[in-house]
Amino acid sequence: MQTDLLKTIVIVGGGTAGWMTAAAFATALKGRYRIRLVESDEIGIVGVGEATIPMIQIFNKIVGIDEAEFIQATQGTFKLGIEFVNWGKLGDRYMHGFGKIGQDLWTVRFDQYWQKMNALGRAKPLEHYCITRMASKADKFLPPQPNVPNSPLNDIAYAYHFDASLYARFLRRLSEARGVQRTEGRIDHVSQRESDGHVDAVVLASGERVEGEFFIDCSGFRGLLIEQTLKTGYEDWTHWLPCDRALAVPCDSAPKLTPYTRSTAHRAGWQWRIPLQHRIGNGHVYCSQFVSDDEAAATLLSNLDGKPQADPRPIRFTTGMRKQAWNKNVVSVGLASGFMEPLESTSIHMIQSSIQRLIDYFPDQGFNPVDVAEYNRQSRFEYERIRDFIVLHYKLNQRDDSPFWRACADMPIPDSLAHKIELYKAHGRMVRTDNELFTEFSWLQVFEGQNLVPQAYHPLVDLQSEASIAEYLESVRQVIVKCVEVMPDHQAYIDQHCRAPAPKPAMV
Ligand code: FAD
User: Taking a C-beta distance cutoff of 8 angstroms, is the pair 384, 414 a contact?
Assistant: First the structure.
């Protein structure tokens, strides 16, 4: 057995994708490979992408990031879920809270007992059985408490909000300290080997050649290597996710530091709200077929908590994925590999899982096609399943106040999603295959939050008497009430553990 090792890996791009990859490689490859990163200050980064999901904690642990230091350096806050406003009907409000709903006790899952009692009018709304949702309502936060092992307080799933530019800067410091070599400059063209078309160097406008055997394309939407050079092709999903533009604007903070992202549906799209320590990040994602840029900007600006700190910045995109994430000796990571709108804050997670897959299928000079094919199969599976979950939010709307929402409710959907909806409709059942990202608890909260009521509940629920189910639900609810009571205010927790220094005033 022989392994012909790679020597130099070149990461093209220094946004979130580039620096996350650099930090992970610098840690995992233990200094045995030369890692170079090329980025252009002139081009800059997309500069959005500030809300995450709980798996980011795994990335931080692997890379060895100290939580308090990271929060301070990025003006970060904690996130317990996403609140959805106006997504079912106008005026509706529900939350997709991280972590579990209820507590399993008998033969079938907790939510099946809740479905029955809810239909009988003998249960509280679903949120009462979820600690992250109730804590969010109270603007409270606490990380899991290992000293109370059998309590929901030991099972609090959370993520972060952070400033995207500060995050890239934080990871850059860490990566350079671990040996990553950064080159600043605009790549002018890409050089390919004649024999097989593998990329062998990127050439900067200055004339400098940066050579390597393995290239990670983190160049953002343009896909400098994966698309512009290798012409890999793109699968367009705008027939399922028709929003194609966004406007982003920061504004002054509100008096309460909420521990969740908010997504408010508007006439032809939706608006995100991401609270940080020093500002709130906002953006309007919309469909240009149904609303003009001016109207979209006016809607965004009239729905801010504080004074805007800049003019809205436009971003255009096409939802979909690269036909192959890995082609020849180039792997695309981040926006270069595809785009999914940030409704469920999944893109940074997809960067993280691409990096994990890259480590699992790390090549040698042979670039075995079997490994490449498996990497691509797994990437596609992940993309498609996340896509289905996001499409669900649009498909299940009952809004009749705008042509956009009516078109979304009427659109055909992928078979894989139709199957999940049918399964839920019949008996409130949910299926999770392989290790797709979103759990049954996530699907349940969107189904229920957007008013899809199953025709029946699991037949085995009737093995328990109504009185004992009522008692069981009430005991779970009361435990959560008590837990939330002892949790500190989100702001107080940050002040005590990870308060960021006040940002320097802008130069005039
Ligand atoms: P970029 O940030 O665009 O970086 C590209 C890099 O390539 C830059 O350093 C650039 O200088 C370099 N580059 C490009 N061309 C050249 C060249 N010719 N020469 C040299 N260097 C070059 N994700 C989430 O998880 N949560 C969110 O809340 C979220 N919100 C989003 C909202 C919007 C509107 C959008 C568009 C995306 C959002 N995302 C979100 C996605 C997230 O922003 C991205 O996944 C993340 O920022 C990664 O971007 P990137 O590093 O791939 O690209």
Answer: yes
What are the tens digits of pLDDT across the range 434-477? 889 999 999 999 999 999 999 999 999 999 999 999 999 999 99
Residue with tokens 């990040």: 281
Ligand 1 binding pocket includes 218 (Cβ within 6 Å): yes
CA of 221 relative to ligand 1 center, distance in Å: 7
Q: Single out the catalytic residue among 7, 30, 61, 79.
A: 79
Question: Three-class SS of residue 175?
Answer: helix
Q: What distance in Å separates the CA atoms of residue 348 and residue 333, rounded to the nearest whole number?
A: 10
Instruction: Of 499, 493, 500, give the one whose Cα is nearest residue 143.
Output: 493
Element housing 380 (H / E): helix 369-395
pLDDT digits (tens, 9 = 90+) for 68-88: 999 999 999 999 999 999 999
Q: How far apart are CA 169 and CA 167, in angstroms?
A: 5
| Phi, psi values for residue 58, rounded to 5° | -65, -45
Q: How far does residue 48's CA lie from ligand 1's centre (Å)? A: 7
* Residues 287/268, Cβ–Cβ less than 8 Å: yes
Q: How far does residue 342's CA lie from ligand 1's centre (Å)?
A: 12
Strand-pair category, 269-275 with 326-327: unpaired
Beta pairing partners, 85? 93, 264
Q: How much is the pLDDT for 265?
A: 98
Strand order across the 330-332 sheet: 181-184, 34-39, 8-12, 214-217, 330-332, 326-327
The pTM (predicted TM-score) of the whole model is 0.97
**Torsions phi, psi of 441, nearest 5?**
-65, -35
Whether the per-residue pLDDT at 508 is higher than 50: the answer is no
Distance CA 388, CA 418 (A): 9
**What is the arithmetic mean of pLDDT over 295-302?**
98
- pLDDT, position 435: 87
3-state secondary structure of 504: coil
Report pLDDT digits (tens) over 8-27. Answer: 999 999 999 999 999 999 99
DSSP designation for 85? E
CA atoms within 13 A on the CB side of 438: 27
Question: Any idea what DSSP says for residue 487?
Answer: S
Cβ–ligand 1 distance for 48 under 6 Å, the answer yes
Give the pLDDT confidence of 92-113 residue by residue, as tens digits. 999 999 999 999 999 999 999 9
Ligand 1 close to Cβ of residue 163 (< 6 A):
no
